[in-house]
Here is the input.
Amino acid sequence: MKERRLHFRLPKKLLVFLIIVAVVAVFLLFDVIRMTTFDLTVVSTDPNPVVADGKSTCTLVVELRDGRGEPVEGHNIFVFVTEGGGNFTQQRNTTDENGQIVLNFRPLRATRYQPATDVTVKIYDESNSIFFLIPKTIYHVIEVVEP
Here is the structure.
């Protein structure tokens, strides 16, 4: 009696699709793991709180360190307001040899119709991802008071 063997073959298009998905998943996993090796912190906020008089500014010092605690030089840090009102003089800066950037923030002027409110900012490292934009991200609250 002749023995029958069953051969299971994936269609060529499905096989190519699965290979592409696997490669993308590996790259994505690499960026996620790489993101977790960085530590992004706000080292200082001066003054804290800042007065919402339309003239006062607040200086934030942000620091980026690697998994060994060493400062990371040359990474682009981006910051923007997510809640509240105000402006940064520069939203993007590159970390120096100490892994730091300095950001200047001016809150909106408080009025009777728009009182001073704390401002939440999103800060992230644009440079830590290699394949996908999966930045190391933190949120920081800047305290804002009435003049």
